[in-house]
Design brief:
Elements lengths: L9 H9 L9 H10 L3 E7 L5 E5 L5 E6 L4 H8 L3 E3 L4 E9 L2 E10 L9 H18 L5 H5 L7 H9 L4 E3 L3 E8 L7 E8 L2 E9 L3 H20 L4 H16 L5 E9 L4 E7 L5 E4 L2 E5 L17 E5 L5 E5 L1 H4 L11 H13 L4 H16 L7 E8 L8
Antiparallel strand pairs: 1-2, 1-6, 2-3, 4-5, 5-6, 7-8, 8-17, 9-10, 10-11, 11-12, 12-15, 13-14, 13-16, 16-17
Helix pairs in contact: 1-2, 1-4, 2-4, 6-7, 7-8
Length: about 400
């Protein structure tokens, strides 16, 4: 039996009404949230693939207004993960929407006066949390959220690559991670993967030779083979050989995939990794660039050969390890200047000293690579950042 409307909480009212919303009409959740919270209106904005814009998703599934995520009030809420007010009367409140640490977008609620003045902040938190759960469960049954993520058309190769990825970010009690792909709308053979398993974080970054859909197919084969090896609890060396055989058998000896395959013991901080002909990760410790994490390279997967080395490093609390593909440091500006490892490390140090979260650090680094090139990345550029917090609050 339903309680009278006057006796129901905002959360209860929202729960009752939202239960009837079909996946194709997820944009209606913003309107229902506004009604439950006593706001004039509500709009749902979905962050785009490049995490530089957010687009309104209307109740009928169509796209509405866009808002930039740099230099705006909405962007401040998205970056900080905290609600931000705008105006005096009426008052717009931008509330970030995230599931764990995966950032979905924002909701804009317009009130006659500040909700802080009318004691609705608690209700706002409860309603938006439930809204996120409904978005996460509902998006599996519809394309409307994925359509809203597109600031421009997505290539078929990029479509396949984005569907291969895990959630872009994760924040646990001892470790936080985030990754991003560029060019976001035409990515090819780059990919990454991770899994937060009991006592450990398993991760990988790969770069398949070539471009377009053929490279995506190789990257997909590599990632899914690594997942199989991981779930069968095989060693890094065994995983390497398994992928090596798969690429050689399916794509021939002229094709290959470079990569880093790693495991982090979450309790001890011991990071072990295998380098399959890939660029080296970089380490920032105590706000300083320590250097690249050396590991003698094995042959790229698909070209065969023994495991040259499984390297190890004991991470300290607050350490950040940035894995990346060669498209990042080899990206060149219009006058031919490479982005370089030095520039990448410097930007990572700055973001760390500024206290930027792992997710926001990756967003900033990715935007810096794109800005450096100016127009049209010639190669895929992928970044994957690991921060070892060891149970302490650092930046995640």
């Amino acid at each position: 039996m339903q309680m009278p409307a006057a006796d129901r909480s905002a959360l209860g009212e929202f729960a009752d009404r939202s239960s009837m919303v079909e996946p194709s009409a997820l944009g209606l959740l913003a309107h229902l949230a506004a009604d439950a919270l006593g706001a004039r209106s509500g709009r749902l904005f979905v962050a785009d693939y490049a995490l530089r814009r957010a687009c309104e998703l209307r109740g009928d599934g169509t796209r509405g207004d866009e808002v930039a995520l740099d230099g705006t009030i909405a962007g401040r809420a998205f970056s900080s993960g905290l609600p931000v007010e705008q105006g005096n009367g009426p008052v717009s409140v931008w509330v970030p929407l995230s599931e764990g640490s995966e950032r979905i977008g924002l909701i804009e609620l317009v009130f006659d006066e500040s909700p802080a003045d009318v004691a609705t902040w608690g209700d706002l938190v409860d309603v938006t949390r439930m809204m996120v759960l409904l978005l996460v469960s509902g998006r599996r049954y519809t394309d409307v959220l994925l359509r809203a993520r597109r600031a421009r058309p997505l290539s078929d190769a990029a479509e396949a690559q984005w569907d291969l990825l895990p959630p872009l970010s994760f924040a646990g009690s001892r470790v936080s991670v985030c990754g991003v792909l560029e060019p976001a709308y035409s990515i090819g053979g780059d990919s990454f993967d991770y899994a937060n398993n009991p006592g450990r974080l398993d991760l990988a970054i790969v770069d398949a030779v070539g471009h377009g859909l053929p490279a995506v197919l190789m990257a997909s084969a590599a990632i899914n083979t690594l997942r199989n090896a991981r779930r069968e609890q095989r060693t890094l060396g065994q995983a390497y050989h398994q992928v090596d055989r798969r690429i050689a058998e399916e794509f021939g000896q002229s094709n290959y995939v470079t990569g880093q395959i790693a495991t982090l013991d979450i309790s001890s901080g011991r990071l072990t990794w295998l380098n399959a002909g890939h660029v080296l990760p970089i380490l920032v410790r105590n706000g300083s660039f320590v250097g690249e994490l050396e590991c003698e390279p094995s042959m790229p997967m698909g070209l065969g050969g023994p495991v040259a080395q499984v390297a190890a490093e004991s991470l300290q609390t607050g350490d950040r390890v940035l894995f990346h593909t060669d498209g990042v440091v080899e990206s060149r500006s219009s006058d031919g200047v490479a982005f370089s490892t030095v520039r990448l490390a410097d930007l990572l140090v700055r973001a760390t000293l500024d206290g930027a979260t792992v997710a926001e650090t990756i967003r900033t680094l990715s935007a810096s690579v794109v800005a450096h090139v100016g127009k049209g990345l010639r190669d895929d550029a992928t970044l994957f950042l690991v921060e070892y917090t060891n149970g302490h609050h650092v930046n995640a």
